[in-house]
Amino acid sequence: MKKLPVIHPFLFAIFPVLFLFAHNVNRVSFSEILLPTAIVLGFTLLLLLLFRLILRDSKKAGIVVSILLILVFSYGHVFNLIRGEGEVGYLHRYLLPPWGMLFICSAYFIIRTRRNLHNFTNVLNIVATFLVVISLINIGYNFKSNVTSQDIKSTRNIEINSIDSRKPDTLRDIYYIILDRYASTSTLKEIYNFDNSEFIDYLSDKGFYRASKSTANYLLTDHSLASSLNMEYINYLSDRMGEESRNLGPLFEMMQDYKVWRFLKSKGYKFIHFGSWWRGTKRNKYADTNFKLAHSLSEFSQFLDVLYKTTMFHPIDWKLDITGFASTWRRQQWKRILQEFDELAEVPNIKEPTFVFAHMLIPHDPYVFNRNGNFVTEEEERKRTKIVNYVDQLIFTNKKLKILIDKLLSDSELSPIIVLQADEGPYPQRYSADVLNFNWEQARKEELREKMRILNAYYLPGVDKDILYPSITPVNSFRLIFNLYFDTNFELLPDENYAFVDGRHLYKFFNITDKVKYQ
Predict the structure, then answer these.
(1) What is the reported pLDDT for 148?
(2) Where are the alpha helices (DSSP H) in 33-117?
């Protein structure tokens, strides 16, 4: 066999990046893989130079580095295969030593062998090339599917300028605040053993109408926000995308270019977007202003965080915090939420009428707040149950919401319109055991209710609120608001709830309304 250059270490290095990207093309932008790619290639180059200097043999150095890379990037996948539910930190103590010994023994054999390693090097080159090529083919196939789906626009059914409406003499600021996975009062009481009546009473005292029997229209943020921001059900995507599709591209587009902001923009509103670290809402290209996290040395992406957690370095760094990476992403989430609350409170100082969309990943995990707002490390989070972590973060959320609402109401010259709404409820415990294959058609009623019953509250000053009703769902929120304040004639849609079968069939919807509605 013809001799090939030692390229397999670099190919084995970029394969995990390409593999993860291939399975998340529609969730991750191409720019997000550039930094991880640069990091793994730079790391590989340094290792090659080091081992070549020590061993004085480029082939042996390459094989040792490839073995190390394979073990480093496969560790997290093996760990996830053998882990169970509950506290699993102890498992690293039993898995890391044999993983380390495997590398030491393999490296010792390669270093000590007197055999010709040319053929073995060529085989590694071929295997690594095959893995990379397969990933690139998958990326190309999924990317092509993503690009061809972009013609599915949220504004296709409604021409904004043709809607019969009026422009009020004065325009109130509008705040659409999404509190991700904020559960209903009944869920909090029955599953989390938490009485949220103190916060609910606060909202009532301030003049909010709480839709006490509200439910999410869809069980995933992607579908839920695409629906509420466009004031429509999105089941038609089943035919356009196919029930087998996992392409979220159309939903991301619908969360960018949506009917609510276009309507309000036509009335003279300024559009301010407060996003999260999640790609779907991280930034809106149509907004006049996008929230940006200040005082951050680097904006680590979710992609890099997921990739990092597949490596052998994560449990070591999690324990010792050698690099600081383990806590940096969590710290940024902690800072992001605090800064979002602070900057939301300053919106009344803007002279123009303003529409604010704020997607706040709280009480959504990671659980970085205790009930007093102090930072919670990953180790501290792991030591506590999900219920304790969730409730503590929710209590802190309530405290910050009170401060924010008081500020918005006191500082606004004209009382604003405020919608506090969850896009989904928290996931049931069984879901975490098999995220991709969890079958929602086989989910128990109590699991569906935990996922679908949500907080939904409206502050609608200066209008007759009798039109509101306890079971209103997010799809009708802006239909109702536009009818009340702009004299539109949107028909309220039936309040229904839909789930998809599993993570492999994101557009195979089925109706679960009878299972989740309140009696």
Answers:
(1) 45
(2) 34-55, 58-82, 91-112
pLDDT at 4: 62
pLDDT at 483: 95
Distance between CA atoms of residues 468 and 481, nearest Å: 10
Distance between CA atoms of 149 and 170, rounded to whole angstroms?
Answer: 39
What span, in angstroms and rounded, lies between the C-alpha atoms of 268 and 288? 12
**Angle at which helices 259-266 and 477-486 cross, to 10°:** 10
In this prediction, the residues of the chain whose per-residue pLDDT falls under 70 are 1-4, 26-27, 83-90, 142-168, 294-302, 317-327
Which pLDDT belongs to residue 466?
A: 85
Say which residue the tokens 């019969």 belong to. Answer: 164
Instruction: Please list the alpha-helical segments (H only) found in 88-117.
Output: 91-112
Closest CA to 453 of 189, 88, 177: 189
The pairs formed by 298-304 with CB atoms below 8 angstroms and a separation of 24 or more are 298/328, 299/332, 300/325, 300/328, 300/329, 300/332, 301/28, 301/32, 301/35, 301/277, 302/28, 302/277, 302/278, 303/20, 303/21, 303/24, 303/28, 303/32, 303/33, 303/36, 304/32, 304/35, 304/36
**Planar angle of CA 369, 277, 148, nearest 5 degrees:** 150
Please, what is the Cα angle at 112 between 106 and 115, to 5 degrees? 100
Structure confidence at residue 307 (pLDDT): 81
Residues in the chain: 519
Distance separating alpha carbons of residues 194 and 395, to the nearest angstrom: 10
Would you list the domain boundaries of the chain? 8-147, 149-516
| CATH ID of 149-516, from 3.30.360.10, 3.30.230.10, 3.40.50.1360, 3.40.720.10 | 3.40.720.10
Query: Residue 437 carries which side chain, given as an amino acid letter?
Result: N
* DSSP SS3 for 273: strand
> What tokens appear for 224 in the block?
């839920």
Whether pTM > 0.85 for this model: the answer is: no
Where does 290-417 have alpha helices with state H?
Answer: 302-308, 313-320, 325-344, 378-383, 386-411
Q: What are phi and psi of 29, to 5 degrees?
A: -80, 155
Determine the pLDDT at residue 293: 72
Residues 6+ away with beta carbon under 8 Å from 182: 363, 394, 397, 422, 425, 454, 455
Amino acid identity for residue 127 in this structure:
V
Greatest Cα pair distance in the chain: 88
Q: Which of 231, 189, 186, 243 is nearest to 210 (CA)?
A: 186
Q: Identify the helix (H) or strand (E) that includes residue 417.
A: strand 417-421
Q: What local confidence, expressed as pLDDT, does residue 304 receive?
A: 77
**How many other CB atoms are there within 10 angstroms of residue 379's CB atom?**
13
Distance CA 45, CA 435 (A): 36
90-102 b/e (C-beta count within 10 Å ≥ 16 → b): eebeebbeebeee
